[in-house]
Structures are given as structure tokens and as C-alpha cells.
């Protein structure tokens, strides 16, 4: 299972001349960090890393906020058309994502959101809305009403109840949303590739894909860059893994 | 007066609470309006985003699929009715792409489910240090498609790729290096393998969750009756996992029919002579390389129609025999 990753790691440590050595070895003859320095130095890689970080963190925070608002509305508030609306939002999960790329491109063009982080972030948030609202609604519904009712009777507003009582109790659900969205934004390629043409705004997946050049793909650097790109993902996953696994399991059980 | 209003608020907005207050008061219209206003803060942000970036685009895309759409000067677009759709269906490249896409689904969906099942069963045995393992089988799932596609491309490289080395020199199964990436059919070997490999972890977790819900006493009863572990597996575990399998088949199929990043990076756009396209890589090329937005939209709607039809068929067929 992990052999490919091991191979990638080893290759990133090999000097260029050994990249296509024959026979290929699973243990480097010579270890070098020059791929890493080259990749990091190359073409503003550090900038792309920061771009990805900014986009991922923003998308995640915004998604957590907006989908919890939505989920709370569906879980606790009553208003005309609630059920219908919920199913419409839910149907968003069934739409093949890449199908939306063309029209999202056109809409973003109209709204002047191309080549901007805002354009990336807003679309990322939207694409994650359906699933996360569904998940959070489930979590919110499981919280006993008594707490909220007590607060409301004491004169708290709906908003205060939401913010001060329900949200803190939903840490597990929010953790799931956080990790799903972070991973999504960090790894996302199709939309970023289409929406961002300006070099300085590139995110990591685009940068790595571009390493594959017309002439000689410098595999050592490709993989060094990939390993660097993988680090945040691995860190976030290790911290949140319980929630991640739980989130996926919940999707499956409720599916 | 203030308190009376707030109690009323509680009753109006809270599900399940009975309303001791006179509900004939001021008619339902006002009540609805108040409910809407109260809910607005919560619902609006998400709703606006959803409408702007999902519903709107879907409708828009549908519309332009009937035009010869000129992205640079939209007002010059001509209405051509179903021409885009007809062109796509008649195009041998499109048909080939459909076959390729279907083949990918047929291979990777069962592949992921079978291997995911194996991993899930393994994980279900209580092995110590399980938590540490998680990262390993999860790494493919959380890694970007871009990275793993490039990785597989490298491993299957014609010159001195790892796979060729293993096949030729270690296992001595072939004589000459196989040029995987240059052959319109063999290029799918890395693509399919990648598709399966990447999904195993995710599938395993879902199955594992399904396994937890199986009541132990059924298994124990069977054991008492003398059934061996394999028999118990086939006759108890698997049938009880049916809802899980249904879910997986539907979701994985949708995902497989929508795959495209791995293809885009490994074949560089259809490889030799556009023979190795998936439907979506074809759509991508038509739209962003040749700027045929109308045609591209038509392709994406054709795919959506296919995906939808298949999902419905699958759900109907598979749900029919679920025992409670």
C-alpha cells in the first residue's frame, strides 16, 4: 500500500542523474537534499505554499461558519419551505462536480472573481456546503433541546443560543467539517487550474502539475515538492484523524 | 407585553412545542413572515452561495449547451438546438471516451470494494497499534490526485520505471520494457490501478462502520451451530453489509464516471490520437483548449444524464432484495 509513497520519498532524495538509474532501487545510493532546495527555490514555490495555506484556512473557516448556520436553520428553526429547501441543498451532493466547472467559470468571469483567491474560496465553500450541512444537521439534532429551550426561556435570542450553546457542544461535528474541507481545499486541482492563470496566485496542486514539463520532467524535484505539499495534510490528518474516520463512517451509515 | 411576545416567539419557532396562545391571532401569513425573517440570518449566506455557484451555473450551462457559444463575445452566439448533443454522440472520439470511462468504472468500483472489504475485515480484528496504522492506509486517500497521478506515471515509465523493472528483471515475466504510457490501451493499467489504490482506505472505513453494526450474537449463534469462519463470512457478514455495499456501489460509480485528473496527467490529454480520453477530459479539452463552451456543456450534460440514469438503475436493482 505504501510502497509507492516510499518510492516517491526515496526518489526525492536522489540526485538527478540517478532518477532513471537502472536497475531502479528502493534505497538510494546517494542521498541529497538538492531536490528539496531546488524545488523550494524554484519559481516561488514558497509563495504557492502560502497561497494554498491561505486558501485552505479561509475556505475551511468560512465553510464551518456557513454550513453550521445552514444546518442550525434546518435543524431547529421552522419556516415555510424548510424541507424542500433542505432537499434541494442535499441534491447538490449528487451533482458531478466537474460538470460545474464550465458554468462556474463563466459565472466567476461575470462576477470578476477569476484569478482571485476570493473566487477560489467561494467556490470551495459552496462545493462543500451540501455534505457538511447534511452532517451538521445530524449532529445538531442529536443535541438535547432542553438546553436551548432553557436559554430561550431565559430571554436569549436564537443567535445567542446558537453561538453560545449549540456550537460549543458540537465540537466533534465541527472537527469533521474542518478536516474534510481543509483536505478538499488543499488538494483541489480542477477548479484552481481553471480559475487561476496568474502565476503569483497559484496553489500547490497547480504548481506540482506544472512540474511536468515539456522536456525533461525533473522527477526528483516533483517528488520533493510533493512531499513538502503532503506535510500539512499529514499533520492535519494526524491531529484530526478520529474525527475524519468518524465523519466518513457517518456518511456511510446515513447514506 | 415584552414577555408575552417572547413566549409567542418560542411557540412559533420551536418545533414540537404546543402553542397555548391563540393561534388564530393575526393569521398564518404574518407568522410565516416572522419565521422567515428569523431564519434568514441562518439560511441566507449558504443559500446565496448555493444559488450563485451551483444552481445558477447548472441552469446557465444547460442553456448554453444549445448554442454555438462564443465565450469572448457571448452576444454573437447562435442558437443551434440539439446540434452540440448530436455532434458529440456521433463523434467516434466521444464514443471511445464513453467506453473508456465505463471500463474505468467497471474495473475500479469492484476493485475498491473487494480490497476495501479485505482491509476492513483485517482492521476489524483488534490489532494493537491500530491508530498508528491509520495514516498508512489513509495516505492515498488524503493525497492530492495530482501527486499520486505523477507518482504512478513515474512508476510506469517506459524507460526505467519501477514496474517494468519488477516485471522484466525480477519476476522475469516479460522480455522488453512495456511502453505503458504510449499505448492507448495499456495506459489504462496505471490509471485503473491508481483508481483502485486511492480509494481502498475510504471504502475500508465505510465498510468497517457497517461491520460494527452487525450484531455479534448472530455470528456467535452460527459458531455454536458449527459454521466455520468462512461460512459465517459468506452467509452472515456479507448479506448484512448489503446496505453498505449499495451505498458504495452507487457513490463509487458516480465518482468513477467523473474521474479525470489522473487521466489528464498520465495521458496528457487523450494520449496518442485522442484514444485514451475519459468523457470529462474530452469535455475539458473541448472547452478550455478549443473554447467550444457550448459543445463542452453538452458533453457534461450528457455525462450527467448517464450518471443519473445509472445511479437510479443501481439503486432500484440493489435495493429490491434488502431484507430487514
Overview of this structure, please?
The complex is a heterodimer of chains A (255) and B (324). Chain A is mainly α. Chain A has helices at residues 3-12, 34-41, 45-76, 82-91, 101-110, 117-141, 145-153, 158-169, 171-187, 190-195, 204-210, 219-254. Chain A has one domain (33-254): MetI-like fold (Orthogonal Bundle). The longest helix of chain A is centred in the C-terminal third of the chain and has 36 residues, at 219-254. Chain B has 324 residues and is mainly α. Chains A and B meet through α1, α3, α4, α5 and α6 of A and α1, α2, α5, α6 and α7 of B.
Give the helices and strands, then pairings.
The complex is a heterodimer of chains A (about 260) and B (about 325).
Chain A: H1 3-12, H2 34-41, H3 45-76, H4 82-91, H5 101-110, H6 117-141, H7 145-153, H8 158-169, H9 171-187, H10 190-195, H11 204-210, H12 219-254
Helix pairs in contact in A: 1-12, 2-12, 3-6, 3-9, 6-9, 7-8, 9-12
Chain B: H1 2-13, H2 27-64, E1 67-68, E2 78-79, H3 83-90, H4 92-124, H5 130-142, H6 145-155, H7 162-170, H8 188-212, H9 216-224, H10 229-240, H11 242-257, H12 261-267, H13 279-289, H14 293-319
Antiparallel strand pairs in B: 1-2
Helix pairs in contact in B: 3-14, 4-8, 4-11, 5-8, 6-8, 6-12, 8-11, 9-10, 11-14, 13-14
Please compute the radius of gyration of chain B using only Cα atoms: 27 Å
For this structure, the CATH topology of the largest domain in chain B is MetI-like fold
Please count the beta strands of chain B (DSSP E, at least 2 residues each): 2
Mean pLDDT of chain A: 80
Secondary-structure content class of chain B: mainly alpha
How much of the residues of chain A is beta strand, in percent? under 5%
Helix content of chain A: over 70%
Q: From the coordinates shown, what is the CATH architecture of chain A?
A: Orthogonal Bundle
Helix content of chain B: over 70%
- CATH homologous superfamily assignment of chain A: MetI-like
Amino acid at each position: 500500500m505504501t510502497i509507492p509513497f516510499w518510492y516517491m520519498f526515496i526518489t526525492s532524495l536522489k540526485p538527478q542523474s540517478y532518477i532513471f538509474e537502472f536497475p531502479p532501487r528502493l534505497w538510494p545510493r546517494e542521498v541529497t537534499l538538492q531536490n528539496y532546495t531546488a524545488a523550494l527555490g524554484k519559481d516561488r514555490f514558497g509563495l504557492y505554499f502560502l497561497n494554498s495555506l491561505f486558501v485552505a484556512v479561509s475556505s475551511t473557516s468560512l465553510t464551518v461558519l456557513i454550513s453550521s448556520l445552514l444546518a442550525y436553520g434546518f435543524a431547529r428553526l421552522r419556516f415555510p419551505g424548510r424541507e424542500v429547501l433542505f432537499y434541494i441543498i442535499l441534491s447538490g451532493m449528487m451533482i458531478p462536480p466537474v460538470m460545474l466547472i464550465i458554468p462556474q467559470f463563466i459565472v466567476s468571469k461575470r462576477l470578476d472573481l477569476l484569478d482571485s483567491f476570493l473566487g477560489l474560496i467561494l467556490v470551495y465553500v459552496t462545493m462543500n456546503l451540501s455534505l457538511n450541512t447534511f452532517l451538521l444537521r445530524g449532529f445538531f439534532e442529536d443535541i438535547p433541546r432542553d438546553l436551548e429551550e432553557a436559554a430561550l426561556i431565559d430571554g436569549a435570542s436564537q443567535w445567542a443560543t446558537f453561538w453560545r450553546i449549540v456550537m460549543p457542544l458540537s465540537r466533534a461535528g465541527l472537527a469533521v467539517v474542518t478536516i474534510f474541507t481543509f483536505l478538499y481545499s488543499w488538494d483541489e486541482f480542477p477548479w484552481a487550474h481553471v480559475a487561476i492563470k496568474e502565476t503569483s496566485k497559484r496553489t500547490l496542486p497547480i504548481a506540482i502539475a506544472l512540474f511536468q514539463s515539456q522536456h525533461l520532467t525533473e522527477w526528483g524535484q516533483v517528488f520533493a515538492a510533493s512531499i513538502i505539499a503532503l506535510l500539512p495534510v499529514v499533520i492535519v490528518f494526524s491531529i484530526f484523524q478520529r474525527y475524519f474516520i468518524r465523519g466518513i463512517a457517518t456518511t456511510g451509515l446515513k447514506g | 407585553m415584552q414577555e408575552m411576545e417572547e413566549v409567542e416567539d418560542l411557540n412559533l419557532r420551536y418545533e414540537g412545542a404546543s402553542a397555548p396562545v391563540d393561534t388564530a391571532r393575526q393569521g398564518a401569513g404574518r407568522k410565516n413572515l416572522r419565521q422567515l425573517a428569523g431564519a434568514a440570518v441562518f439560511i441566507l449566506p449558504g443559500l446565496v452561495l448555493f444559488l450563485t455557484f451551483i444552481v445558477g451555473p447548472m441552469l446557465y450551462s444547460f442553456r448554453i449547451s444549445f448554442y454555438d457559444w462564443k465565450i469572448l463575445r457571448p452576444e454573437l452566439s447562435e442558437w443551434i438546438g440539439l446540434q452540440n448533443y448530436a455532434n458529440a454522440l456521433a463523434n467516434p472520439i466521444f464514443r471511445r471516451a464513453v467506453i473508456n470511462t465505463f471500463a474505468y468504472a467497471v474495473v475500479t468500483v469492484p476493485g475498491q470494494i473487494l480490497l476495501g472489504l479485505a482491509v476492513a475485515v483485517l482492521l476489524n480484528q483488534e490489532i494493537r497499534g491500530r491508530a498508528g496504522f491509520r495514516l498508512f492506509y489513509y495516505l492515498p486517500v488524503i493525497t492530492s490526485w495530482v501527486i499520486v497521478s505523477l507518482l504512478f506515471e513515474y512508476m510506469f515509465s517506459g524507460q526505467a520505471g519501477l514496474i517494468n523493472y519488477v516485471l522484466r528483471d525480477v519476476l522475469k515475466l516479460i522480455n522488453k520494457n512495456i511502453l505503458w504510457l504510449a499505448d492507448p490501451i495499456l495506459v489504462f493499467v496505471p490509471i485503473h490501478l491508481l483508481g483502485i489504490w486511492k480509494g481502498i482506505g475510504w471504502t475500508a472505513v465505510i465498510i468497517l462502520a457497517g461491520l460494527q453494526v452487525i450484531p455479534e450474537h448472530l455470528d456467535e449463534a452460527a459458531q455454536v451451530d458449527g459454521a466455520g469462519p468462512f461460512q459465517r463470512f459468506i452467509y452472515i457478514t456479507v448479506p448484512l453489509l448489503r446496505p453498505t455495499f449499495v451505498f458504495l456501489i452507487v457513490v463509487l460509480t458516480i465518482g468513477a464516471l467523473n474521474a479525470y485528473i489522473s487521466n489528464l496527467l498520465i495521458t496528457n490529454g487523450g494520449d496518442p490520437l485522442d484514444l485514451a480520453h475519459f468523457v470529462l477530459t474530452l469535455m475539458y479539452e473541448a472547452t478550455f483548449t478549443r473554447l467550444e463552451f457550448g459543445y463542452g456543456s453538452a458533453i457534461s450534460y450528457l455525462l450527467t444524464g448517464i450518471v443519473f440514469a445509472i445511479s437510479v438503475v443501481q439503486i432500484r436493482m440493489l435495493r429490491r432484495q434488502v431484507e430487514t
